[in-house]
Amino acid sequence: MAKNLRALTDEELNFIDNNYKFETLEDKNNKRYIIVSFNGYDRRVLHDFDKPFLINTSVRKVNISTDAINYWYNDFKDNYSLIEVQNAINVLIVLYQPVNKEEIEKQLKRRTSKVTTV
Questions:
Q1: Whose CA is closest to 115, among 10, 34, 22?
Q2: 63 beta partners
Q3: Contact status, residue 113 vs residue 9, Cβ threshold 8 Å
Q4: Residue 3 or residue 59, greater confidence
Q5: Dihedral sign, CA of 18, 9, 76, 79?
Q6: CA–CA distance from 16 to each of 55, 67, 106, 114 (Å)?
Q7: Global pTM?
Q8: In contact, 39 and 18? CB cutoff 8 Å
Q9: Euclidean distance between the first and the last CA atom of the chain, given in angstroms as a whole number
Q10: pLDDT per residue over 35-55, tens digit each?
Q11: Does the chain have fewer CB atoms within 10 Å around its N or its C terminus?
Q12: Are 101 and 7 in contact (CB under 8 A)?
């Protein structure tokens, strides 16, 4: 299941989280979009809410899944960014843990992707 997936390092996550902003937009036909904007540029990119998309940053390419979009929009939008939710999902997949709201919330509260052993 983990395929060729890896979680963002804390530095990569901080860079993307500090430089990218994620917002939602709903048009008059009730079609929803994700607006991705990069700090420092007056440019916004519109992505379909119901389709995965790729963010190509200077530190990493990150695939944003529809699962991450839905969890973020429905459960975590007020407290976490879309990239944080996607990274939490990636950590869970890499560690072969179930991906559900409760597990994502636990991972988000850890605030790090580092795995420590006891």
A1: 10
A2: 54
A3: yes
A4: 59
A5: negative
A6: 10, 19, 21, 17
A7: 0.88
A8: yes
A9: 25
A10: 999 987 778 999 999 999 999
A11: C
A12: no
